[in-house]
Amino acid sequence: MNQQKVQNPKIQMPTTTAMNDQDYITDMLTTEKYITVSYSIAEHEASHEAYYQTIHQANNEASQMQRTLYETMFRKGLYSLTPTQEASIQQSYQQHTQDKSQLPYQ
Questions:
Q1: Which long-range contacts (CB under 8 A, 24 or more apart) does 36-39 make?
Q2: Rounded to the nearest 10 degrees, what angle do helices 49-75 and 21-44 cross at?
Q3: What is the DSSP letter of 10?
Q4: Which is more confident, 46 or 99?
Q5: Torsion of the alpha carbons at 100, 46, 35 and 76, rounded to the nearest 10
Q6: pLDDT for residue 44
């Protein structure tokens, strides 16, 4: 199986000790990931419908920003993906199927 990374050509970045554009956008993406997880928890624990709707809207906006940052990074070659082997996918599927069969309700 071909294990080459899926990545666009990487844009040139200065190699200094100062933060560069890649450092900033990576920090932004990491922050957005943290924010969306936190908003998700807050949504599920909201005690009032209006409060839930406000958090839900903020979460949607943060999720969209996260997606935009990811797409920008991928386009610029700053984010790569590694293809997964078919055998690994099958093994994961079998494990989840087995775990599901152990649930008391289906």
A1: 36/62, 36/63, 36/66
A2: 150
A3: P
A4: 46
A5: 70
A6: 92
